[in-house]
Structures are given as C-alpha cells and as structure tokens.
Amino acid sequence: MSAATVTSLPTMDPVVLARLTGKLGDQATISRLCASLGDVFSEFLPDMLESELGFEVAVSYAGFTTGRYGALVSGLGGAMACCDASLRDWCERFTLICDSPMIITLVENMLGAVSDSIEDPEARPLSKIELDVAAMMFDRISSVLKTAVNGANGFEPFLGSAHNAETRKPSEDGSDEDFVAMVNMAVGIGPVLSTFHVVVPQGVLLKSTIAAPKPANTPKTRVEWSEQLGEQVRRSKVTLEARIRLESQTLDTISRLQAGDIIPFHEASDVRVEVNANGRDLYVCEFGRSGARYTVRVKDTYGSEEDLLQHIIG
After folding, report:
1. What is residue 54's predicted lDDT score, i.e. its pLDDT?
2. At what angle do helices 100-110 and 27-53 cross, to 10 degrees?
3. What's residue 5's pLDDT?
4. How many CB atoms lie within 10 A of CB 124?
5. Which of 84, 211, 208 is nearest to 157 (CA)?
6. Closest alpha carbon to 47 in 36, 38, 56, 39
7. How big is the chain by its Cα radius of gyration, in Å?
8. Cα–Cα distances in Å, from 255 out to 33, 243, 250, 262, 289?
9. Could you tell me if 109 and 53 are in contact, meaning their C-beta atoms sit under 8 angstroms apart?
10. At residue 184, does pLDDT exceed 60?
11. Which has the closest alpha carbon to 213: 152, 136, 146, 157?
C-alpha cells in the first residue's frame, strides 16, 4: 500500500489577510486620514515653532505614501534623521523622519544666521550635535501628533534616540513588514524647503479619530528654546584630535621605521599642538605633562565662542 500523500492547505494572500484583519485600508480612507493629520500639522506646528524660534516657519501637507514599513522608510534614502516612537493606548511603534537640510538650517538660524542669506544646505548625515537638535524637533512634532489622535488618554510619547538613516537596522520583531502610511510634510525656513515624515501602521491609523488639538500649555518662548538649544549644544560630547609636527625625515628612513624607533618633535622647546574637532581647527596648544599623563595647554583660539560652535557643528 502506498504512503498517504500529505497535502498542505493553501496560504492566504498576505494583502487579503491584512485587509480582513483591519491592518490594511483602502486608498480613499487612508488618504482622508493622512490629509486630516497633515492639516493638523499645517495649522498648529508653525505657530508652535515660530513662537519658540522667533522666525517664520511654513508647514504644509505634501501628500502620503503607502507600503511596507521597512521598504518605505529605507526608500527615502540617506541623509535623514529618524526616530522610532510609541504612544501608549495609541501606537506601539511609529517613526518620525526629518531630512538633514531642515535640521542644518534650523541650527544655523538658531545660532544667528539670517534666513534669507542661507542657501540650501547639502544633504548629508547629521553630526552628533545636529542629531541632538533633531531630537528636539521630533519632540515638537510628536507633541502635536499626541493631541491630534484620539485614545492617547493624556500619555506622553516615548521617543527613541535620533539617529541617521544610514545607521538604521531592520527590526527583529517582523514589524518592518507591516503595512503603513507615511504622511509627508513640506517645511519652509527662509528660502530653504525641506521635509519631515510621520510613518504610522495603517492598522493604527484606521482606528484613529483625528481632530484639531485644543489649546494646551503655553509653548516655550523663544528665549527658553534658545537656552535649551544652547544647553543641548554645550552638553554634547565632541571628539578632539591633536596634531604635533614631527621632524622631517627622508622617505628611505620612514620606510625602515620599526616598533620602538623614535621620531623627535619639530620644536626643541615648547611643542606647538593643533587641536581640532570634526576636522575644524579650534585651538593652538603647547605639549606638556601633568603627573603621569601627557597633556596639552591651550595658548590661543581660532575665534570667538560663537565661531567655535559654528565650526564644530558644521
């Protein structure tokens, strides 16, 4: 007698399954919900930012995109700052994204640049300090989002660390395969036009009631924002490098150097040391020792405190 043939049951199409379980909506419904959320950002975020920053910020809805979580976020490319977030009783995971020109322009304006004189910055990965400022922007965006969605019960959003899209790793829980909608927002700061995005699972969006927020706490004043930005910048850690000029050597000598060989410093007395951060020269120092540790002592700077901050951030 022949062995019984085992037949496997046909698997359901994942798109059909997602529709049946409320995790995927029709385009018309998703379009309406995204537009409602975009209208809330357009109406309330500019006033919040302008009152805090002291310069005009234009925010407008720029449509929506749908797809799988991971593919949609990675499809934006690099030079983006990302932040994964959650809001209790609403969404376990949504993602906020700002393009780098938005953050770079924001930093330049807050450090005293004139909006009309700023040119479109080149998109690039953000520095540690710029990511700190991106985190502050994500906080403002999430605060508007929180008041726009129903069911949050007054809970505050939990924000993960701001990071460059280039360092983003795939999720381990399979949520990168979830169907999501991405609300796209255009932001104008002076002549610079940039974007931010809010990525929400469609299953969450379909259950949401989106309404304009009621007047809440008075937003921070420009002085408070400036103080917070300045404090954030000054607390950010910066890697310093020191360069010491050594005596010139012939190529033949250099090619024969071995472990333990000694190359003298160029100067015979006080050794001049150039200290830099992010490739920008900051200080002129002299080489010395403090107990058992080698040190450098600052002798001169390459500019004022504001100049140094601009150099480091840039």
Report:
1. 75
2. 20
3. 58
4. 13
5. 84
6. 56
7. 26
8. 67, 21, 9, 14, 30
9. yes
10. yes
11. 146
Beta pairing, strands 240-244 & 192-201: unpaired
* Secondary structure, 3-state, the chain: CCCCCCCCCCCCCHHHHHHHCCCCCCHHHHHHHHHHHHHHHHHHHHHHHHHHHCCCCEEEEEEEEEEEHHHHHHCCCCCEEEEEEEECCCEEEEEEEEEHHHHHHHHHHHCCCCHHHCCCCCCCCCCHHHHHHHHHHHHHHHHHHHHHECCCCCCCCEECCCEEHHHCCCCCCCHHHCEEEEEEEEEEECCEEEEEEEEEEHHHHHCCCECCCCCCCCCCCHHHHHHHHHHHHHHCCCCEEEEECECCCCHHHHHCCCCCCCCCECCCCCCEEEEEECCEEEEEEEEEEECCEEEEEEEEECCCHHHHHHHHHC
CA 282 – CA 71 distance, rounded (Å): 42
- pLDDT, tens digit, 9 for 90 and up, residues 196-239: 999 999 999 999 999 877 655 445 555 555 566 556 656 666 66
Does this model's pTM top 0.85? My answer is no
Nearest to 272 by CA among 300, 250, 291: 300
Tallying the residues shown for the chain, one arrives at: 314
Q: Look at 126 and 17; give whichever has higher pLDDT.
A: 126
- Maximum distance among all Cα pairs of the chain, rounded to whole angstroms: 99
Q: What's the token pair of residue 314?
A: 């840039």
